[in-house]
Amino acid sequence: MGGASVTANGGIQVDLGQTRYVLDPHSHVRADYTFVSHAHIDHMHNPAKGERIIASSATKELAKARGYDLGTTIEEAEGVELLDSGHILGSRAIRIGDEVYYTGDASGRTRAFLGKCRTRQARVLVMETTYGSPEYVFPPTAKLVKEVNSLISSAYDRGVPVVLMGYPLGKAQLLSYFFSSWDPIIYHERVATMNKIHVDHGVPLKPGRTFDPEKDRDSLPHGPWVMISPMSSGRSRLMAHLKKEYGAILVAFSGWALGSGYGHTMGADYSFPLSDHCDYDELVKLVQAVSPEMVYTVHGFAAEFARDLRKMGFSARPLAAYQSSLTDYVRV
Ligand SMILES: [Zn+2]
User: Fold this and answer.
1) How far is the CA of 59 from the centre of ligand 1 (A)?
2) Domain around 162
3) Contacts of residue 102, Cβ cutoff 8 Å, sequence gap at least 6
4) Distance from Cα 105 to the centre of ligand 1, integer Å
5) pLDDT (tens digit, 9 = 90+) per residue, 24-56?
């Protein structure tokens, strides 16, 4: 049997022997197996009838809550191994034979109830490189949590509420977990929906009041509270209202917060680089652990990271036709 070939074809297409796999396609692609790594919208598609989908049961459930019915999914197939990628609940990397290891979206560090990406050796590595530029090295999570707790503490001293914003799936549950000691805690309804599925999967998230942005915007308490909310511009109607009516301060959480001007662009009062992706150093470590003959990079700094890998002696190039657009970062 010859080696696997990897191409971009509406997804990442892997041909190995007689079997075709397509990984995280944006729309239906004919294949023997389709792999859905996790339930962020930019990795999701509406499957055609009869598609054989490999995904974790948590991914299937989270996808359904977001309007994507993956149908019957399988977690095992011959010659295929799924590994925790540490990105969000249910996220998986996949290893196909000894040939191909695909990270999906991956984190390089343990955070709260999430582990870090598990790796295996493979001849070909297909990896996400969202933060594949040397300026993106994230601080220790414990340090960041401590800084945010003291920010909230000083807001409470002044009777001021705090809105913590991040992606509704993944980041918002980490925020719910890390900052659960504050009372009252209020969950935006989009966050509450995702929290519930996490609780069903055994993640200990504290119950809190659910906030319906249409009905409840004028009935929040005056005084300090913490709200966990999807990322939203400080200039959006809701956030402008929470600032004006309650004096709330807005805190944004994203790896992009390491870039200059991020907080300003988002209209946030503060921003912190809490990420569910590998930072630059973790990406390099991941490549070393997989020890591949060939690396294909996707997302973010794909070309730049491939160039850096070549300088380190690896064969690497971006899988250019499979790039996410900038709007995907906003939507997930
Ligand atoms: Zn993701």
Assistant:
1) 11
2) 141-272
3) 12, 14, 23, 35, 37, 93, 94, 95, 96, 125, 126, 127
4) 5
5) 998 888 999 999 999 998 888 888 888 999 999
Contact 38, 92 (CB under 8 A): yes
Regarding whether 115 and 9 lie in a shared domain, the answer is yes
Cross-strand partners of 34: 22, 53
What is the count of structural domains for the chain? Answer: 2
* Ligand 1 midpoint to CA 269 (Å): 25
Residues with CB under 5 A from ligand 1 (ion): 40, 105
pLDDT tens-digit profile of 211-258? 999 999 999 999 999 999 999 988 899 999 999 999 999 999 999 999
Among 226, 241, 272, residue at a domain's last position: 272
How far does the centroid of ligand 1 lie from the alpha carbon of residue 104, in Å? 8
User: Which residues 6+ apart lie within 8 Å of 72 measured at CB?
Assistant: 53
